TrEMBL record:
The keyword Transmembrane does not apply. This is Single domain-containing protein. Keywords: Secreted, Signal. Its main location: secreted.
Length: 180
């Protein structure tokens, strides 16, 4: 009986462990707002978990840095299963396609099975594999006076498509000629 309990405990530990090879870490030097870190246009005191980035951020006030833990690049033949509602680190889970099962290959050599999609960061596109045909879904063009939000460029499609518009003041002569 004791052997069964120990075996069950070991199996439970293996089932709940996480593969650390799916993660990468780095430090970013940041500006401070009092005792809060400012990173990628977010201000936070200690921890922040941005869903769209599938990362975990820790504010190091003394060093004026943010420790970032994110998903590592998946191995060849694998893609991230990132869904919009998956929290970190579950958003780093991957699925792998065997070469014999691959029906499509993206321009950056990601293998996809039929019915599978891959949200890329570079370039900012979505690749879809249907009936052995790869389709590329691109961001729409920003309207005049707007540009892509460069703080979102490291996020996967469609977050990397977000735009930023700068509101400009009307020239003084336009205001002077305004009827009214």
């Amino acid at each position: 009986m004791l052997q069964r309990i120990l075996l069950f405990g070991l199996a439970l530990e293996l089932a709940t462990s996480f593969d650390n090879s799916d993660l990468k870490t780095w430090l970013a030097t940041v500006q401070m707002d009092g005792d809060k870190c400012i990173y990628r246009n977010y201000t936070f005191a200690l921890y922040y978990n941005p869903k769209e980035a599938c990362e975990d951020w820790t504010c190091n006030k003394r060093e004026k840095t943010v420790s970032v833990v994110g998903c590592s690049d998946p191995p060849t033949g694998c893609i991230r299963n990132a869904s919009s509602d998956a929290a970190f680190p579950e958003c780093c889970e991957k699925s792998c396609v065997r070469l014999t099962d691959a029906t499509c290959t993206t321009p950056n050599n990601i293998l996809l099975a039929d019915g599978q999609a891959y949200n890329s960061t570079d370039p900012c596109v979505r690749y879809e594999c249907n009936n052995k045909t790869i389709t590329t879904v691109r961001c729409s063009e920003p309207p005049p006076g707007c540009t892509r939000d460069s703080t979102r460029s490291s996020y996967g499609y469609p977050t990397c498509c977000e735009i930023r518009c700068v509101k400009t003041a009307s020239p003084p002569e336009a205001l002077a000629n305004k009827p009214g």
